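C-alpha cells in:
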C-alpha cells in the first residue's frame, strides 16, 4: 500500500546533511513495512536488524560505541557487505536496545554518509530513560493511513483530484460528491490502520472488527510491558472510555469518579507516550504563536485512529452507512475525530498537538473546533451542519479577531460560500502544500502548519 511518507524518506536519503533517522509512531501503523519497501526500491541492498526477533544483536552494542567496529560485526553476523551510499542499515524495534539508540550519535559523527534508519514502538518510554543523541538524529513520525491513502489503497485514486482544497469555491458534481461521502463513511468505519485496510480490501468489514479488537488488546499489553507499575484495570477503563469523549473538553471526573485524578493524569501521559492519543489544547488565539494563549488545563482528545474509535464506541456499521449526515452520528464526534486525524496527517506537528479556540466568559462561552495557521495567519475550522446564522461561535471568533478575514465550515454538504465563510465537504483536502487564498487574493508562502 502506498504511503505518502515515501516522499519524506526519499528526501532524507538525498540530503547532504543527513543524520541517522528515527521513525516514530504507534505500533502497527506500518513503520517496518514502509522502511523495507523504501529500502528495496532505493538501495542496492539493506540489512535489517530486528532486536525483537533476535536478541543476540543487542550484544553488538553492549561493549562500546565504535561505529566502524559495530559495522564490521554486523557484516560478519549477517554475512552481508555494508557499502556506504548503497546500503541501508535498518534497526527495527530499537526500543529494546537502548544502547543502540545511544550509538546513533557516533554513527552520525564517525560515519555520516551511512544511511541508517531506526524504528520502534513505545520509543518514548525508553527515550525518557537514556541520554539519547539530541541534535545528532532526525525524527520522522508515522500515523495511520490518511483518507487519501485509503482512496489509493481501495483503487479510487482518480477521486483524489476532485477533493477540494480549502480555497476552492466551485461545487462538485453530485455523483462525485456522493461517491466521496460514501468512501469517507467506509474510511470512518475501517480507519487507517494498515492491517484493517488490507483486511477490508481482501475480505470484508466483518473481519475488520476482529482486527480492531486484536489491535486494541495488543496496544494495552505492550504498554504494560513498559509501565509495570500501572494498574491494568484502570488503564483498560480509561483507554476504552476516551473514544466516547472525543469532541468534549476533558475533565478527570468525566472519565471516572472512582479513579483518582492523579492516576488518570498519569494514564493519559502513558497513552500519549504510546502515541495512542493526541492532545488538542484550548487557546485564546489572540495572536501567534498559539501556545501563548494556550491553556494546558483545558484540552480535548484526538484518538489514534477513527476506525478503532468507532469500534470501541460500538457504533453500528449498517446504521452509520445508511445515515446521510455524517455529523449526526455520535454527536458529531466521529467527524471531529476525522478532521483532527487529517490535520495531524497533513498539517500536524512533531509535538503531536492540535488547537481549538475557547472563550470562557460569564453567560458568553464559545468554542471553535480547530485552528490552523497558514501563511502566518490563523484560520478557524468549524465542523457543523446548518446555515451561517447558526454558527455563533465562529462568528464571535471572527468578530473578536478582525484581522482574521476567513473561516471554514466542514460538513456533509457540497461547496458553498457566505460572506467570509467557506463551506466545504468533510472530505476536503487539508494538505499543507497548496496555497490558501480567496478568488481575489494570492499568497506567496504556501505552507500550512500547526504551531505549538
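Residues out:
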Amino acid at each position: 500500500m502506498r504511503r505518502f511518507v515515501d516522499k519524506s524518506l526519499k528526501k532524507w536519503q538525498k540530503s547532504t546533511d543527513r543524520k541517522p533517522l528515527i521513525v516514530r509512531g504507534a505500533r502497527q501503523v506500518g513503520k517496518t513495512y514502509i522502511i523495507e519497501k523504501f529500502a528495496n526500491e532505493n538501495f542496492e541492498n539493506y540489512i535489517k536488524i530486528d532486536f525483537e526477533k533476535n536478541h543476540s544483536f543487542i550484544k553488538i552494542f553492549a561493549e562500546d560505541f565504535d561505529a566502524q567496529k559495530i559495522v564490521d560485526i554486523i557484516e560478519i553476523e549477517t554475512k552481508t557487505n555494508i557499502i556506504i551510499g548503497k546500503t541501508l542499515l535498518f534497526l527495527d524495534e530499537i526500543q529494546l536496545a537502548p544502547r543502540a539508540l545511544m550509538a546513533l550519535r557516533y554513527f552520525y559523527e564517525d560515519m555520516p554518509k551511512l544511511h541508517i534508519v531506526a524504528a520502534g514502538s513505545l520509543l518514548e518510554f525508553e527515550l525518557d530513560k537514556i541520554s539519547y543523541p539530541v541534535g545528532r538524529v532526525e525524527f520522522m513520525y508515522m500515523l495511520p493511513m490518511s483518507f487519501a491513502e485509503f482512496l489509493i489503497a481501495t483503487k479510487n485514486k482518480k477521486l483524489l483530484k476532485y477533493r477540494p482544497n480549502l480555497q476552492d469555491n466551485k461545487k462538485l458534481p453530485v455523483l462525485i460528491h456522493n461517491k466521496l461521502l460514501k468512501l469517507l463513511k467506509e474510511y470512518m468505519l475501517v480507519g487507517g490502520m494498515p492491517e484493517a485496510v488490507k483486511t477490508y480490501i481482501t475480505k470484508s468489514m466483518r473481519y475488520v472488527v476482529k482486527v480492531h479488537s486484536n489491535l486494541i488488546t495488543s496496544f494495552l499489553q505492550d504498554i504494560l510491558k513498559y509501565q509495570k507499575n500501572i494498574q491494568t484495570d484502570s488503564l483498560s477503563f480509561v483507554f476504552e472510555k476516551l473514544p466516547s469523549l472525543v469532541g468534549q473538553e476533558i475533565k478527570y471526573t468525566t472519565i471516572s469518579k472512582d479513579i483518582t485524578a492523579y492516576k488518570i493524569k498519569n494514564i493519559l501521559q502513558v497513552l500519549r507516550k504510546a502515541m495512542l492519543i493526541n492532545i488538542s489544547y484550548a487557546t485564546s488565539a489572540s495572536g501567534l504563536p498559539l501556545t501563548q494563549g494556550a491553556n494546558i488545563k483545558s484540552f480535548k482528545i484526538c484518538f489514534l485512529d477513527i476506525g478503532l474509535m468507532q469500534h470501541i464506541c460500538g457504533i453500528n456499521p449498517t446504521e452509520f452507512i445508511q445515515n446521510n449526515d455524517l455529523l449526526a452520528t455520535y454527536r458529531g464526534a466521529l467527524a471531529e475525530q476525522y478532521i483532527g486525524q487529517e490535520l495531524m496527517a497533513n498539517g500536524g506537528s512533531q509535538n503531536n498537538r492540535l488547537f481549538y479556540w475557547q472563550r470562557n466568559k460569564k453567560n458568553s462561552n464559545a468554542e471553535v473546533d480547530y485552528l490552523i495557521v497558514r501563511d502566518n495567519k490563523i484560520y478557524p475550522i468549524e465542523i457543523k451542519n446548518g446555515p451561517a446564522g447558526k454558527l455563533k461561535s465562529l462568528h464571535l471568533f471572527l468578530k473578536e479577531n478582525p484581522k482574521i478575514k476567513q473561516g471554514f465550515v466542514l460538513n456533509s454538504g457540497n461547496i458553498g460560500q457566505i460572506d467570509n465563510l467557506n463551506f466545504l465537504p468533510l472530505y476536503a483536502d487539508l494538505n499543507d502544500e497548496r496555497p490558501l487564498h480567496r478568488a481575489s487574493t494570492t499568497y506567496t508562502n504556501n505552507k500550512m502548519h500547526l504551531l505549538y
